[in-house]
Amino acid sequence: MSDYLVIVESPAKAKTIERYLGKKYKVKASIGHVIDLPKSQMGVDVENNYEPKYITIRGKGPVLQDLKNAAKKAKKVYLAADPDREGEAIAWHLAKSLNVDLESDCRVVFNEITKDAILESFKHPRPLDKDLVDAQQARRVLDRLVGYNISPILWKKVKKGLSAGRVQSVALRLIIDREREIEKFIPEEYWSIEGKFEKGKKAFEALYFGKEKEKAKLTNEDEVKAVLNLMKGKKFDVTNVTKKERKRNPAPSFTTSSLQQEAARKLNFRARKTMMLAQQLYEGIDLGKKEGTVGLITYMRTDSTRISDTAKADAAEFIKSEYGSEFLSTKKAEKQDKKAQDAHEAVRPTNVLRTPDSLKAILSRDLFRLYKLIWERFVASQMAPATLDTVAVDLKNGEVIFRANGSQVKFAGFMKVYVEGSDDQTDDKDKLLPAMEVGDKVSATEIEPKQHFTQPPPRYSEARLVKTLEELGIGRPSTYAPTLDTIQKRGYVALETKRFVPTELGTIIHQLVSEFFPKIVDIEFTAQMERDLDSVEEGQVEWKKIIDAFYVEFEKHLEHAEAEMEKIVIKDEPTGEDCEECGSPMVYKLGRYGKFMACSNFPDCRNTKAIVKEIGVKCPSCEEGQIVERKSKTKRLFYGCNQYPTCEFLSWDKPISRQCPKCNEMLVEKKLKKGIQIQCVACDYKEDPQS
């Protein structure tokens, strides 16, 4: 018989931890929550101070019984669920079910699954943290009150399977608001003048700056011509040389949201995929007979950038031996308040000596790439800043000034290991200028005016939406990935070129929720609610008071919505085409993934087909037809003329309505690895990429 029973959440962890603890310990898994609110009903007694009605989750009865039997045989039970609110709630429910004294030292938490961390955590068991449990209960009850009250109204008034929620409704609002901004956007023309120059035999580039010391904007071609007319000949005088040294600091180690953002930018991973892979790295990977299963990263749900002193010391040793002591960070450790000390660490490797290369043969491709990202980010965060030499040179011809900018990495520092990605994809490559002094003369080899148009704000990518939600204080690390999943599964948004686009259904739902439950989509209200819920965790306020303050007003809105919300029938819009199979009219239907065409004679005729979508561009080939969006058999988008087969125009790139300002040929949206670029199909005209 084992003396001690340890209960964790995941079976994958159980075996590893049992091996670390030895024969006196039996480790079993609860497989997540065992007790929760019922799925079939609200499960919150609003008449009795919002008391939750917890039940054993369907199918979890045998798991709970097995844990009860094992608990009876053990001298002591340790509850070692994950180190967060959800984990604390799981531990609390288990303690109550297994008759474990809530005040006893029964709770064990660890941030990483390594032998040292596990053994150390069992030296410091603690009682259950009721504030943390209450914080989870508050969020669970609040989300239940919102979801289980609004969703049935939407089912009745629109259609089944819809939902609304605290975080998802705000996320949908952000996507719709952005779409409206894009629709209202009017492009403005602006120009630049690019110059190619030579000093001796060395070529470099400079841009028109202005006249004398005033920076000038060029808004039209006439202004450009006026500037060009002021220039005399091709000789320019060097009138100013400014040299500066700039330091660039490394980014801190990952939080959950910064990991999701960077994995999207650098690895092209969706938020859900990132979290799934991170979970595997945390729970443990089998490294072979010598080491067995070991957790490779610390707990991946965290909004802290704190690093333990031990991890800092290990990283310093590694950096010193691998790169030299000059690459070590000299930054003094910031003082942390007591609360911060108790917080999670950032996401980091559990052992810096486990380099990505040493694990390449063991890990799958995706696990390796994510581990490499986490490892590099952590090592870089403990390294010295990079030093860049920057130089700005002013070139003068008459009244006209061009400016050349150059930069050079003087000392790589952390950049030797890792450089943070960015949404606008700028890079820090050396841009060297020839040596120049005031009084030198240089020659222009080419002066080229370029027309540009301002771009609308970009649609949200997953990374950008996560970042925005975090900045606004909406949701928490654990909620981002499921929220993005939900709004897609409900058919409220679709992904086009990895950007969120609201669907017709999403727009309808947003309008209804905004009208009848304005606070649910109010950004400041939702952020304040998030702060109030955090105050429960800090023991500052009783959780039921927060729920009550919200529900009293919310209930009135519910009654109003039940009475006043009109039933919305999403009518089948005729397409103007007849079914090829039975001759009945075809209609537009709204499905999970947007609109499609279907036969009105359903269910007798089940003919459906994709919508051929016009993009508002005249065919450049026949000049009679319209360009339409089509999908190939492999689901790849392409563009063709609606007069096919009479006109055989075809393009993989999306044509746009503007013509090339240089040659009047067709402009297209060219998909780059990281963004979109408008360019001409006939000449070298290109506009700045949009991320």
Q: Can you give keywords for this protein?
A:
four-stranded antiparallel sheet; 34% helix; 24% strand; single chain; alpha+beta; 691 residues; 5 domains; globular; Rossmann fold; Topoisomerase I, domain 2; 29 strands; Topoisomerase I, domain 3
Structure write-up:
The protein has 691 residues and is of the alpha+beta class. The protein folds into 5 domains: 4-128, Rossmann fold, CATH 3.40.50; 138-184 and 458-564, Topoisomerase I, domain 2; 189-249 and 386-453, Distorted Sandwich (Topoisomerase I, domain 3); 256-381, Topoisomerase I, domain 4; 573-680, no CATH class. Helix content is 34%, strand content 24%. The protein is built from 18 helices and 29 strands. The strands form 9 sheets. The chain has a 6-stranded antiparallel barrel with strand order 8-9-15-14-11-16. Strands 19-20-21-22 form a 4-stranded antiparallel β-sheet, with no helix packed on it. Strands 23-24-25-26 form a 4-stranded antiparallel β-sheet, with no helix packed on it. Helix 3 crosses helix 5, helix 6 (166-184) crosses helix 15 and helix 9 packs across helix 13 (365-381). It is globular, with a radius of gyration of 31 Å. The model is unreliable at 335-342 (pLDDT under 50).
